[in-house]
Write a structure and sequence with these properties.
By secondary structure, the chain is of the alpha/beta class. It is 52% helix and 11% strand. The chain has helices at 40-50, 62-70, 88-100, 105-111, 121-132, 149-152, 155-163, 176-230, and strands at 31-36, 54-59, 77-80, 142-146, 166-170. Strands 2-1-3-4-5 form a 5-stranded parallel sheet, with helices on both faces. The protein is globular and about 50 Å long.
Length: 231
């Protein structure tokens, strides 16, 4: 499942929950969190768990997320399912199999035929976002939001997830409050980091701008002194 980055999708087709609601009940601006997942029930569950705490946008196709990134429309945090299948029915079947066989790890998963890594489209999305930002992690937190990953991914794929700057957040394994706390904390850290970087760049430009007149005066004085010395 390779992504065509040059072709924009004609229709978005993603579900947006409370798209116009940017503030919580206390009037505080909510962080924007995107989730891309091929199972509608996972999208609904995430929205139900975190409604009122985040402004949530959900996507069922990864190219819809890339369209937004290319338009320089970024979330405060992005959660990516890792494995995507051709239909909701197939995705539900695989999800059920993995849940039933979670204790038997990769060997059983291979036997039931769900270990095809062409379905790991979420990692492709992370790679394309990483490349879009100049082969650097994005300015917002990005997560491999997965339940099957611990049983199906190879070491090289975990290495790629790390290289692209993504964290791992296990789906349906922690309480919503704990999940929300981790996302909000990472958003705050990312904002603080980029605020300091922006401040440093600004101060550098101000320093050079303030230094420029002194450099001009010094150069002028040097040449004036040489000219006077020759007179």
């Amino acid at each position: 499942m390779e992504l065509d980055l040059q072709t924009k999708s004609k229709s978005r087709g993603h579900d947006i929950f409370d798209n116009s609601r940017r503030f919580n009940a206390r009037g505080q601006k909510m962080d924007t969190v995107w989730l891309v997942d091929d199972l509608p029930r996972n999208l609904r569950k995430f929205e139900e768990n975190h409604r009122g705490y985040f402004k949530i946008e959900t996507f069922s196709k990864i190219d819809e997320v890339l369209d937004r990134i290319h338009e320089k429309d970024y979330p405060d945090a992005l959660l990516c399912d890792v494995f995507f299948y051709d239909s909701v029915e197939e995705a539900e079947r695989v999800e059920a199999e993995i849940e039933n066989l979670a204790t038997q790890l990769k060997g059983t998963a291979q036997k039931i035929g769900v270990h095809d890594h062409q379905h790991a489209a979420g990692i492709q999305l992370m790679r394309k976002i990483y490349e879009f930002f100049g082969n650097k992690p994005p300015r917002f937190p990005m997560y491999a939001y997965t339940s099957k990953g611990p049983f199906l991914l190879e070491q090289s794929e975990w290495d790629n997830i790390s290289t692209y700057g993504a964290e791992v957040l296990l789906k349906n394994r922690v309480l919503p409050e704990r999940e929300r706390l981790e996302i909000k904390g990472d958003i705050a850290i990312a904002r603080a980091r980029h605020s300091w970087l922006a401040w440093g760049k600004l101060r550098s430009r101000e320093f050079l701008w303030n230094l420029l007149p002194n450099v001009v005066v010094a150069v002028a004085a040097f040449f004036l002194g040489r000219w006077l010395g020759q007179c």
